Amino acid sequence: MSTVQTEKNPSTMKKSNPRSEAFKTFMKRLLKNKAAVVGGIVILFIILVGIFGPFLVKTDPNAQNILNKLQPPSKEHWFGTDNFGRDIFSRIVNGTKLTLTVGFLSVFIGGIIGVVLGIVSGYYGGAIDTITMRLMDILLAFPGILLALAIVSVLGGSLVNVIIAVGIFSVPAFARIVRGSTLQVKKLEYIDAVRALGASDIRIIFKHILPNIMSPIIVQATMRIATAILTASGLAFLGLGAQPPDPEWGAMLSDGRTYMHNAGHMVLIPGMMIVVVVLAFNIFGDGLRDALDPKMKQ
Amino acid sequence: MAKKELLKVEGLKQYFPIKGGFLGRTVNHVKAVDDISFTIYEGETVSIVGESGCGKSTTGRAILRLEEPTDGSVVFQGTDITKIPKGEMRKFRKDLQIIFQDPYASINPRQTVASVLSEAMHIQNVLPPDQRRARIEQLLETVGLRPYQADRYPHEFSGGQRQRIGIARALSVDPKLIICDEAVSALDVSIQAQVLNLLEELQDEYGLTYLFISHDLGVVRHISDRIIVMYLGKIVEIADKNSLFENPQHPYTKALLSAIPVPDPDAVKSRIVLKGDVPSPIDPPQGCRFHTRCPFATDKCRTEEPVLRTSDIMKDTHEAACHYMEEISAGKMTPNY
User: Could you tell me if B34 and B234 are in contact, meaning their C-beta atoms sit under 8 angstroms apart?
Assistant: First the structure.
């Protein structure tokens, strides 16, 4: 009897939104994956360090103290000092922001371009599709770091150019995934239904296709951040990214190479940081994919 | 009373290219619909029947230009809508609506019912925005749903209810012709009956015209005024419901009708079982397309393509495409089973 009453009284009905409901099952599945949870916590911690770290660590990352150079980790210098006597802990904390900015911004740029190209090729097909996808194939044919290297060599070595280069080399990955998903969604009947109503292409793309292909895009973006950080560090290691004295992790790794044998911490610490962050994004991305994939439902 | 023409399809062809080779050249075509013509009059229900792959759904989609037809014309109230630019076509989309087969795929899962319906009205600019909410609630009641269900999402409804939402969406722009593409095929039989009855009520109320595409002869018999039988992209027979069911002329139609189960265990079954499969629409047979499976086929059938024609043995609005329908009905030809 009570069910009949609630049916008659719509104001007391609890509204369930598919987004909030889907989000609940998604969270449940994500939290079941222990590795993804650890990855997520590490990412969260790194982001917090990137934002608030520079205010908490008072030591100037660029303050030199030649008398105190190449000190192993100690109470005063948690991660030791480098060849100019700079505090490595302070440099790592200050470098976090740089690393994350490169990762997020380049993926954002590459993601937007890639999503637009992918949707347009998938939706319109034909010559547009063939030309775009062959261009993407050309970009994909280069190993990522080589492509980024070429772009940075042309544009000149600076952090902004690294972001652009890494962004460009992220484009094909997004374009491919989005094109595939678009092809899948566009043949569904609700797309035909809005076309039969006379909806414009822009409306169909942004209102009906894009919201339904968000999950693969989110997963791809998370995984790509890891690659972007790695590539940016690689470029910095080769001297093409962040310029001294910027405390970029890849550049720090490169600086430490000369002193590897007598001051191993100069290489180990930035190297470990890169590994931890990249691993965290990768594991979290894997977890996201598993949680968002409807076929994985148990 | 002279019936008023609403939609006239003439010489409609829909070929889908098959790409092959290194450069993606067009190597061949799937001739899904190959030169069909028919007319729909105002207020009637015309059905297209045929087995899967015969081109019935493609015909519906080509009329709406969801797929651009290869050739032919679709004249709606005097305008050939295959020849006008896409922008102008949008105005006609208000009059021509479609209801789909799969109630689970035909509504965007991220939209509420109200937003589905108000989007339709927004696109076609049907009512001022402040009156749309009232219209939505009225539409929901018309199709047998409750007004308070407007803010729910598709996953909260059953298949039959979703089909009603699809009907409400089509109705929201006040169309004249609704194409029902297998609109009840995915539903349970009891729900099928409810939805069919709803469609009939709506027809009386709003003076709608239906083009009903189905493979279910029982459903077609229930709802149609006239029936078009298609085989491999061609029309083989076209007649009013009673003539078709009581006096079928084309051997294919006869075979199709003999497949309807009779709810009487003692009835003598005279089932005509066709041999083989439907040939490929990529390379359809020469002459009569049905000759590869027809029990009466002769050399003439293999070379000469029959045209739709009427004959003394049937009503003048009844047409079939067979060289030998007089001989067959007079019993002069023996089937070669």
Answer: yes
Q: Are residues B158 and B179 in the same domain?
A: no
For the full predicted model, state whether its pTM sits above 0.90: no
Contact with chain A for residue B120, Cβ under 8 A: yes
Residue B309 lies in a domain: no
CB–CB contacts below 8 A, A to B: 70
> What is the distance, to the nearest Å, from the Cα of residue A294 to the centroid of all Cα atoms in its chain?
23
| Residues on chain B touching A212 (C-beta within 8 angstroms) | 108-110
Domains of chain A (ranges plus CATH)? 38-57+79-296 (1.10.3720.10)
pLDDT digits (tens, 9 = 90+) for A120-167: 999 998 889 999 999 999 988 888 788 888 888 888 878 888 899 889
Helix (H) or strand (E) holding A120: helix A88-124
CB contact under 8 A, A190 and B169: no
Is B110's Cβ below 8 Å from some Cβ in A? Answer: yes
Cβ contacts of B147 within 8 Å, gap of 6 or more? B136, B137, B138, B140, B141
Q: Which residues on chain A are in Cβ contact (under 8 Å) with B61?
A: 192
Is B90 in contact with A188 (Cβ distance < 8 A)? no
Q: Do A190 and B120 touch (CB under 8 A)?
A: no
Query: Are A190 and B173 within 8 A, CB to CB?
Result: no
Low-confidence winner among A63-72, A177-186, A283-292 (lowest mean pLDDT): A63-72
pLDDT class of B2 with cuts at 50, 70, 90: low
CA atoms of B210 and B97, how far apart (whole Å): 10
Boundaries of domain holding B166: 109-174
